[in-house]
Automatic annotation (TrEMBL):
It is a multi-pass membrane protein. It comes from the Eukaryota. This is Solute carrier family 2, facilitated glucose transporter member 5. One of its GO terms (biological process) is dehydroascorbic acid transport. Pfam families: Sugar_tr. Keywords: Cell membrane, Membrane, Sugar transport, Transmembrane, Transmembrane helix, Transport. The chain crosses the membrane at residues 59-80, 117-135, 147-170, 330-356, 362-385, 397-417, 423-447. It comes from Takifugu rubripes (Japanese pufferfish). Belongs to the major facilitator superfamily. Sugar transporter (TC 2.A.1.1) family. Glucose transporter subfamily. It is found in: Cell membrane, Sarcolemma; Cell membrane.
Amino acid sequence: KSVCLSASLSARTEPIGGTLQYGYNLAIMNAPTTFIQTFINETFLERWDVQLEDYQVTLVWTVIVSIFSLGGLMGALIAGPMTIRFGRKNCLLLNNVFLMTAALFAVSSRASRSFEMIIISRFLVGISAGVSMNVQPMYFGESAPKHLRGAISLSSAVFTAFGVVLGQVVGLREILGSEQCWQYLLASNAIPGLIQLVTLPWFPESPRYLLIDRGDKEACIKALRRLQGCSVQSCELDDILQEQAETKGLKPQTPWQLFTERAVRWQLVSIVITSSAMQLCGNDSIYFYASYVFKESGIPADKIQYVTIGTGACEFTACIVCVKRKGRRFMLMGGFILMTVWAIVFTVALCLEGYISWMPYLSMTCIFTYILSFGMGPAGVTGILPTEIFNQTARPAAYMIAGSMMWLNLFITGMIFPFLVSGLSAFCFVPFAVVCLLSALYVGLFLPETKGKSLSAISREFHKLNYKGQDGKRGSQTQAEYQLGEAPLSTTV
């Protein structure tokens, strides 16, 4: 019962200042939209005696919203080098420098009469979210034992969804979503960061980082004892020692090296596709479209903010109750297939809204089921894949690539979604349905199952794809031994 006690506690507290920030900072920007746009117009009028046109205000507002994604992209790019230099835990602690600076800019923006400070704040908080979205799943994946790796890593997705719900609740007009308090709403992300700064130092560093990157076996065993709350299980230490032997003499790899290395070709393709599909599936875009559908369903405008909370609650609930006894392939493929079905139903409902009175309610139902399907699979599984299919030397670079694809596609989707709505109208979710269907096909055909398997076993399955038709012909012997897990253990337990 005491196995992974500390890891479980860490999984419940550390994400408060980690992946929660991503969901939270997405959600809190909805409530103050009108107030910040008014502030932008007033600032221009005071400074230059210029009254902005509506499209100009919208343009500045778009910059404020989209700069978060660009900050996240930068955070994903610097996360890899930071984890190598400072370690997983220290990287998460240092990441709060970006967050606290962002909160300071946000809370001071109104008094300073500077909308530029809001832009800087959103960029910095994007960097913080980009780092945490990469490092936190890596930290959990390296700290958890094989049989609990998925469940503990799932907490990252749970807290991301919880961040959305929390941001929607805090953004209510009765709390911080009013005209008088919007600057405090934008700065409220500092509170989860403070909680992380207080709690995370009490937890150990990643055992794999301590042994493989730093070569400190004693610190690794000590960390395992703290994580497990009991004596170290030999199978867990064996797994880390085996990975150490397989990566002996190898330096941390760069993203470019992964792109040019055939031995990890299909691993790389897998994380690029799944990370891109996370955003290109339109799940985040559907949050923005929810208000329109709720309005069409006859819900009063002053009540829509309360109903919208249900969209975040759907993903949060799905992440919690999702049955993780199923494998990664099953959850990913099942989630994407269900999302494809609901996107098609959603399209049909939108086409028939003018002919059948109850169709708007079907559209509203599709929103919830689409988000539920996303929470059942892609939301929880995608973040753990780089940990399971790449070794210690390649893992930081793999997370840099995965995070970059996620943030880049979030930016692209956010920018083109309004044009999809205006250009395709009722068919705006057809592209998302195509993305989900293609993603499900790829997972079903090419992604090996990783649940409960060692890195060596997973590598053997990918090796068949990477060197298909080569009749045993491989790259360098060192890389081949790493991939197949054939290197002998140099250290005994």
